[in-house]
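User: Hi! I'm working on a homework problem where we have to compare a predicted structure to a textbook description. Could you give me the structure for the chain below?
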Amino acid sequence: MKNHIGLGELSDFLQSTHIKLKLTFLNKLLKSSAKSCSPHRNEKFAEKIGCPLNKNKKTATTIYGWMRGYRTIPLSKITKILSFSSYSWKDIEKNLISIKSGIRKGEICPKFPIKIDYKLGVIIGHILGDGSIEKRFHSVFYSNSDVDLLKEFSKYMIDIFGIRPRIWVQEKRSFNEKTKWMKRVNNLDRIPKKHNVGLFYPKICSDILYAISGKFAEGKNKKITKEIREFNKDFKKGVIRSFFDDEGSVNSNSHIIRFHQDRIDILEDIKNILKEFNINSNIVRFYNKRNKLRYYFNITGFREYYNLYYKIGCTSIKKKREFELLINKVKNSKYFKKKYAL
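Assistant: Happy to help. Predicted structure tokens:
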């Protein structure tokens, strides 16, 4: 079972991606690959990696641009260059400055290899919950009014991808009204209270997430992919926790914990992942809301509450307080104490 994934393992999925390398290393790499001190003038080398030679200048201007640092390199070219050199993908990772989806802006500074861990799971769980990957431009988006959840998503995106979000504050609106953005802010500590906030990230983030986890979210179409199901428990803990923060609820009065979603298949997969943590749940049910089916399942019983809280937990302060209140109420009940005693 993989616990990390390197750039080389993702290269087949990111062929149109452009990268920027430390200039000293890049020149060594090109010279090693071309077996020449002037790679940009080596016609055979230029032909092998698919860079045309300017007959008048007797130089491959694309390669020269790489060597001078004013052109970024497509990952497809790096793959070819490496195959003729004495260097490896690990050397590329050590000397990587930035990566972007094409020749345009939107650079990020990820740390390779990327760990398949709790943090990555939290990001994917939030996207499956209140986030999305935009269908047309494939930008990563996460929206919430809970500052703690926004900060969690932002922090882990910085940790993994090395990029801060564009932060937009949404106008207050009723459920059926179209989203309107009020203003952009530079810091999550400066957002007005009780306003929904959107965090936006460039396409390269979704490219990498897709390469690692499959196409788990595109517009309104979301699913738990084969890759997500097969990753380690630390990763899946992050998925469940953040999904619960976005799509879960705790009611201490009715003794119910609930997961709800528009897609029944996602809930069935969530139930199966919960079983891996020895957390049992009730069957998926549905109700009709605004002429649309809404699916949910409940978790009941002290043992299940206890396992969910201590094995998975939540980040939302409000939800955590209600969770603790529920556990303490049930724990002190004679009926539940006798039936579900640990």
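For your comparison, note the following. The chain has a mean pLDDT of 92. The CA atoms of residues 144 and 236 lie 21 Å apart. Good luck with the assignment!
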